[in-house]
Amino acid sequence: MFNLKNIIVPTDFSKLSITAFEYAKDIAEKMDATIHLMYVLEKTPPFLAISSLNVSEEEVMKSMEERAQKELKEISHDMDEDSSIKIIEILRKGIDYEEIIKYSKEINCDMIVIATHGRTGILHTLLGSVAEKVIRYAQCPVLVISPEEKGGLT
């Protein structure tokens, strides 16, 4: 049996990524592991946010960062209430999959539990897949949680 101590759960705050957190929580409880709930903020804010709100790039980034911190805390608090597992909230700026891989090396991660939206065709081509890139570059096992067929999570 292998021993897991650090599990990264990247999130985009979608219902599907919360499902991945539930899987990680079950594993963490059984293995007495720490969950690193991670959100990666883009380095530059969306152009539309700057031009439509008539605010500076710094103000938009600060607002986005504060909102992300708040959401990380809410998810952590909601999941932590009924469990004794340790949850660490991580907010990074950069390219999502690169920051996930970099952080996994920093903490000597034992597993990454990540959700995928299951897009195919043109959406997959245009948007790419963070999960796919994490699988390709991670140096630890990656558990991929896919959307359910019936009732589908999105």
Write structural notes for this entry.
By secondary structure, the chain is of the alpha/beta class. The protein has one domain (6-145): Rossmann fold. It has 6 helices and 5 strands, in the order βαβααβαβααβ. It has helices spanning 15-31, 47-53, 57-80, 96-106, 121-127, 130-137, and strands at 6-10, 34-41, 86-93, 111-115, 142-145. Strands 3-2-1-4-5 form a 5-stranded parallel beta sheet, with helices on both faces. β1, α1 and β2 (34-41) form a beta-alpha-beta unit. α4 runs parallel beside α6. The radius of gyration is 16 Å and the shape is globular. Residues 149-154 have low confidence and may be disordered.
Features:
6 helices, globular, 154 residues, Rossmann fold, alpha/beta
What is the CATH homology-level superfamily?
HUPs
Q: State Rg.
A: 16 Å
Work out the helix count: 6
SSE series: EHEHHEHEHHE
Mean pLDDT figure: 83
Question: What is the name of the CATH topology?
Answer: Rossmann fold
Largest sheet: 5 strands, parallel
Distance between the termini: 34 Å
Highest-level CATH class: Alpha Beta
Placed side by side, the strands forming the largest sheet appear as: 3-2-1-4-5
Topology:
Elements: E1 6-10, H1 15-31, E2 34-41, H2 47-53, H3 57-80, E3 86-93, H4 96-106, E4 111-115, H5 121-127, H6 130-137, E5 142-145
Parallel strand pairs: 1-2, 1-4, 2-3, 4-5
Helix pairs in contact: 4-6
Give a brief outline of the structure.
This protein has 154 residues and is an alpha/beta fold. The chain has helices spanning 15-31, 47-53, 57-80, 96-106, 121-127, 130-137; strands at residues 6-10, 34-41, 86-93, 111-115, 142-145.
